[in-house]
Amino acid sequence: MADWPGTDKAPHGSGNPQEPRPSRFVHRVLDRWRAFRRGKAAYLLESGVAKAGIGIVLFWVITAILAPVLAPYGPNDITGAFKAPPSSAHIMGTDLLGRDVFSRLLYGSRPILVLAPLSVLCAVAAGIVLGLASGYFGGRVDDVIMRLLDAVMAFPTLLLYMIIIAAVGASAFNVIVAIAFGGTPGIARVVRSLVLDVRNREFVQAARLRGESPLYVMFREILPNCLGPVVVDACLRIGYAAFSIGTLGFLGLGLPPPNPDWGRMVAEGRQHLTTAPWIVLFPSLAISTLVVGLNLFADGVNESAHRL
Amino acid sequence: MAEIILRRFGHLLLTMFIVSVTVFVISEIVPIDVARNILGQFATQESIDALRERLGLNCPSSVRYVTWLIGDDWIPPARDLLGTRALPSGCTPEGADRKGLFRGDMGISTVTGGEVRPYIFRRLRNSLILAGTAFVIIMPVALFLGVLAGLREGGILDRVISVLSLVTTASPSFALGVILVVIFAYWLDILPGISALTDTDSALGSPEKLVMPIMVLFFAEAGYVARMTRASMVDVMREPYIRTAILKGLPRWKVVFKHALRNALLAPITVIMLHINWLIGGVVVVEMLFGYPGLGSAILTASLNKDLYVIEAGALVMTFVAVTSQLLADLLYSYLNPRIRES
Questions:
Q1: Nearest alpha-carbon partner for A150 in B282, B10, B303
Q2: Cβ <8 Å between B174 and A266
Q3: Domain locations in chain B?
Q4: Coil, strand or helix: which one is A226?
Q5: Could you read off the pLDDT of B104-148 as tens digits, one per residue?
Q6: Which CATH architecture does the domain made up of B116-342 adopt?
């Protein structure tokens, strides 16, 4: 853009001391995004790690979709004796109330696969608004927003979740709110650094000079140029969101009973670990594989992007 | 340097202020009948009213926040001195005897009626014993594994360590814990699966109860540190000065110990300190999993019971630990990194 004829501004990034220098992180994210665009989906599958990750995640997505077909019983039906060990009727045994662990496990993949992306989406929306405002207006606004976000970040995330959910009660909506709240500062920081990179470009100045409102400039001129890296960054956060949802369920802060929720299944069976380990073992393996899958995928993508 | 420390200390106070206000505000969103909580379902209305009056629950939350900070034992004398109109009346609890947070009084638990401070500090001590022991064991091992993996990038050892640490780091610690308990407490039956302690016990008195929690923390944390160390080590081993050292014929151990390690360990050490927030989260989960009476499980129980002052005190103590460790990380980094130290 700096090469356009007729622009008498100094080219971007050269000699202008006011120009904020984009950080190494921004470059890394931008590189990742460009690589993603260039190679499209095929390059995602280039690394074996990413392939394994995609495989595991797809497995759970299909399980979630087909849960009613695959599950031999309803998730909350009492179908056998209490704490019955695995048998041909109940391949993963039954839980404390005589519900089929296998069926609950299948249905339990649904909430986590819906809530994780949704909460990341909310965090991205909030992070974009805060990051745009912070980066675009600068000065006082920037100071206040960044201090507040720093305060949230300094706070141990899990403690944050516990307090929010304990105050507003455990429900799917509140889980989303808590996780979005915890994820917002990180995303806002990424957006802010991207905005600092973009906001002094000529097209933004042009929009400003022709009298567009700050809202228009932020959302129509700056945002589209920052969105790519933000999307990639958000994908990497889904694994962490799934991790958190499982942990919240385990701490009794997830979906209220009797919803099948992997974390809660483990929490309920914890007392009976030595007499009926199957109640807790299988949900634990399920959440581990899902989160590991999401992370392998993110990691593989990340590495491929670095190599390109 | 002193200026930086002062400024960071200011940030710490600001953060703790924001945290304390936030907790108060959040707990105001949901009205909870604390008095009924304490007295139980069958209490008469009069006794509930009396208790509400005594606990000062009829005051607006802003007044309660301020009295929580500066106490209320000064109100009756002040009223005698200045007359009743000078100070807000009607919501001063009858037995105005709290000293307030600034004078080290964390209030009383609205669930048990006991003093918060000894409770919180007993729990903090337990958590510090657990987290501290885990930290001391995890870090050297993780650093060692990371260096080992980073020495030969792409080698078999590197692959095994990398994949293992990726898998253990990504798994939620409760799931990891369950799997380990099933193996060690159920199948092998060599370790206790529960780490409950009585109020007076110290965790140091029964170290076997710490083994499983530390093992879970090890698997949850070590992978992360090992990965960071590996990445840093790989970067350093590619530097031209390492090639120079190898080509001029130095023995390999000398290249690694004298040239590579110093630079390679710089990044992981800060990351470790910044990772303490994460460790705190892991400790909460592990405490819940094993029924270990630490600070995290205290806050969680308090949150579930809406025990406001315990949540407040616990949150502040935890934030203090987290922010202070970050401050220490920064100082350590600027001490270790000569480029920053000089400027």
A1: B10
A2: yes
A3: 32-103, 116-342
A4: helix
A5: 777 777 777 677 888 888 888 888 888 888 888 888 888 888 888
A6: Orthogonal Bundle (1.10)
